[in-house]
Amino acid sequence: MLKSLSSTRDLLSSILRGLKVIRQERKIFVGLCIIAGIYLVSQLVSLISPYHPMTMGNVAPNLPPSWKHPLGTDPMGRDILTQLFFGTVLSMQIGFMAGVIAFASSLTLAMIGGYYGGYGDSIINVFTEVFLTIPSLAVLILVAAVVGKVEVPIMSVILAIFSWAWACKVFRSQMLSLKERGFVKLAKLSGESGIGIIAKEIIPSMLPFLGIWFAFIVSSAMMAEAGLELIGLGPQHRVSLGIILNWCMHFNAFTRGLVNWWLPPCIILITLFVSLFIISMGLDEIGNPRLKGRR
Amino acid sequence: MYTVKYFVRRIAMYVLTLFVALAINFILPRLIPGNPIEAKMVQLFRQGVNLGGKEFVEKYSQLFNLDQPMHMQFLLYINNLLHGNLGLSITYFPSKVEEMIMTAIPWTIGLLAVAVIISYSVGLILGALMGWTQRKEKPSKWANVFFSLFMFLSQTPYYILGIMLVYLLTYLLPLFPYGGGVDLALIPGNIEYIISILKHATLPALSIVLVQLGGWALEARGLMVSVLGEDYLFLAKAKGLRERNIFRRYALKNMILPSITDLAIALGTITSGSIITEIVFSYPGIGSLMYNAVRELDYPLIQGVTLVVIFGVTTAALLIDLLYPLLDPRVGEK
Q1: What ipTM describes this predicted complex?
Q2: Among A287, B109, B196, B203, which one is most buried in terms of CB atoms within 10 A?
């Protein structure tokens, strides 16, 4: 009873400490705020939006920006601003889901393989190397073309399959070096189980590092996602930022100078990528305090 | 020098990777229910194109051994590949896939090789200079401005930068042509033709150069900062050498070596690095070929292109891993 109470208190205090660190690290705080802000605003506006992002012909086509349609309408008679908000939500959901799947599987494989070693580890290692070498974009295009009309969860899984390998390799090598440290050996001597050591000793000691890689995986999954959609592969009958760009390309929006159409999705994508990068820079500074003055 | 074990292990990995890639390439299109060739025929027939109906399907099924059991199909597929036979395109029947790829590949390699080398050299110098300013107590404001700029660039996907360049330099300020690799009205061989090729390649190349420039510069800056604390720089300064010479002969030389592996990797991904950029600019390379194949569901062509790209990248990775230990003896010893 007493023991569980103290461990709950420990957990609470470590969460509070984490929040304090995040607030003190300006980079992480700013990055998280931008990302959360973009998501919340898009989600809220898409709930109350008067137009539908996909139904064609609800409004007059090819309108320039006006008060009624702040970003104008597209050639198929749809409000562009509405599409933008819906698209942002979907793109972020797919990227985040792909990131979570890839992150969780790479962490599990690396931790268990790296800690226990043996044949399982060798197999994991070989597969990591194979997936690292295969050019993911080319295979992604093949997969997406074969699968055809992908639903959102399948899209996330496909993206995840091609983004876990780098992280897995890095986590595993980190694991191999941490395994030999004193505090891990001490935990082993005190009778802690393998899973317990991984969960209580090793993962907490590499938290900032894990955060950096999570940001990196999400960012590269979203980059691949938008790229695939730009060339017309990915979820159908839904709108995402990449799909908006695909329509722009289809209707030559770039060479016709329809800035109101193609520029906003580009700006949102870049803002998301830069925010994720800033967050990982902030986490890097927590991990290596020496960097702080340098940047 | 590396040991025999390292060599054997690396070759085995290479064969395994190629095998997995081949298997993916073989299995995926066969997961679609029905005969892909029949499906394509029906689609073409609706569009009013009749390639010969049933006989064509049969002939084609035979050509690709689709009437054989799966394991035989796989063996025959590999046998065909070993003979350099990638099959026939469905959309551009009866063009050979390998010939279509051979016409596309020089465009891609030319574009990427030039872009990678330019961005590497310029990025390296700029990044090294940025890192060099960090040795003072108060780094100059310009270093910070450039740092933010490069960070922004390195996080921008190629295709978005490409879109922006298309808008700026073909619409707002029409300096460059959009689409294609060369003005088709010109006769190959003369100087005008070459100028036209360069003009068409400038925008796609620029979008790749700008993005990679950011990445290279950030990396070079990091490498430079990491050598700043070394004793040999301190000694060089104590000897009274001029700043410029310390930078060139001591700092720059020592930070370049680790970045060479990354340059080699970047050159290795040359066949796959510009797929989406090419599509945005409708540049006639491998990427556009793949795009058209995907749009037309031309499976032999999709498979062929994927295979060539995978083969190129894995082979380049193999060469890097076998050659690098010769450059840097510390690698490959364990």
Answers
A1: 0.79
A2: B203
